[in-house]
Write a structure and sequence with these properties.
The protein has 369 residues and is mainly alpha-helical. The protein has a domain of 211 residues. It is 48% helix and 0% strand. Helix 11 packs antiparallel against helix 12. The radius of gyration is 55 Å and the shape is extended. The termini are far apart. The N terminus is likely disordered.
Length: 369
């Protein structure tokens, strides 16, 4: 039947005992019956019969029908903890352990015992063996002279006018993108000021504030040029420096530009586009022995910028060989471009001198081999 699913499954319904309705009687009553039976068996000769104690009325369990007042009333009572003030904020914090048990330093009461006299001294039975007598003496090479020579060659390959803390990334941007010479000229102090300037216009302003020093630096560099392939251009380079010193910046710019172009064409040769590719400068790819030479020729790229009036584009403001020679205009012949042209002719002629010396040294090495 549907109402007896618990018994059908072989389980006892809750609240009932397995022995039926008699199990609901007082267990003390069954104990009394058994003891009474045993008494009758032992006292058969007595006339007095002891009646067993039985309840007058059956006991009823009212818990199942009475409501649970505790569950009904507790939700209605307020939380006493919320009614009491929080004394933790006003009561002082007392460390009971520190108050009741003070810290004692017992190190002074304990004796200090040295156990080393009690330990036995162990000595090796055999004599000390000197391995230096049987090990071979290997002389280590002295790398100091070779390392010093390498550093000296590296220092000589750098431009002598560069400061020790020069920023190569900034140098690449100035010489290759802006076309401003930084090798051989100007002096280290001016190089530092140029690299610290914000942009190309600010760097040209630095040059214009040091014109007298720049003229001196250019003459000093030109004095070191003497290769036979440059003898026709060297006197003209000095004349360009003199023209700028005399206040003729237009003549100085024109003369310095044509001297630079002629020297490059005779030593390097080739078309302008090919020369621009050859002078591209990357310090990570250039051998350190060629770093100074390649950095000196890097400004030639912007120097060979072409411009045609028919193009409709504005003429370049920076020094341009094409504009100076073929599109002469007063707006391009400025004091700034004249100073850059003087620096460029001195730097390029000195670099071409070094290029010729390297080529001749290579030819001599090839003949001796």
């Amino acid at each position: 039947m549907p109402g007896k699913s618990g018994s059908d499954n072989g389980e006892e319904p809750e609240g009932q005992d397995s022995e039926g309705p008699e199990s609901s009687q007082d267990p003390d009553a069954s104990d009394a019956d058994s003891s009474a039976g045993e008494g009758n068996a032992d006292d058969q000769g007595t006339d007095e019969f002891v009646q067993p104690l039985t309840p007058v009325s059956p006991a009823f369990d009212l818990s199942s029908i009475m409501p649970d007042f505790s569950r009904m009333m507790l939700p209605l009572l307020p939380n006493l903890q919320d009614l009491l003030p929080d004394f933790t904020a006003i009561l002082p914090k007392i460390n009971i352990a520190e108050r009741l048990i003070p810290a004692f330093d017992l190190s002074g009461l304990l004796p200090k015992i040295d156990y080393t006299p009690l330990l036995p001294k162990i000595e090796l039975l055999g004599p000390a063996f000197d391995f230096s007598a049987i090990l071979p003496k290997v002389p280590l090479p002295d790398f100091a002279p070779a390392f010093t020579q390498l550093l000296e060659r590296l220092r000589e390959s750098l431009p002598p006018n560069w400061p020790d803390d020069i920023d190569l990334d900034r140098v690449v941007a100035v010489i290759q993108d802006e076309g401003l010479p930084l090798v051989w000229v100007p002096r280290a102090k001016i190089v530092s000021e140029m690299l610290a300037a914000a942009d190309r216009a600010a760097r040209v302003e630095v040059l214009l504030t040091h014109v007298g020093e720049l003229l001196e630096d250019c003459r000093q560099v030109l004095y070191d040029v003497g290769h036979q392939t440059l003898t026709g251009q060297l006197p003209l380079a000095f004349r360009a420096v003199d023209a700028l010193e005399s206040g003729h910046h237009e003549a100085a710019q024109a003369l310095a530009v044509v001297v630079t172009e002629t020297a490059l064409a005779r030593v390097i040769g080739g078309k302008y586009l090919d020369i621009k590719k050859q002078v591209l400068f990357d310090p990570e790819l250039v051998p350190y022995t060629q770093l100074r030479l390649r950095a000196a020729l890097a400004p030639i790229g912007p120097f060979y910028t072409a411009w045609y009036a028919s193009s409709g584009a504005p003429a370049p403001e920076a020094l341009s060989r094409h504009v100076t020679v073929h599109q002469a205009d007063q707006s391009h012949y400025t004091h700034g471009n004249a100073v850059v042209a003087i620096l460029l002719v001195a730097s390029v002629l000195r670099a071409l001198q070094e290029l010729q010396e390297v080529a001749e040294a290579s030819d001599q090495d090839g003949q001796s081999a």
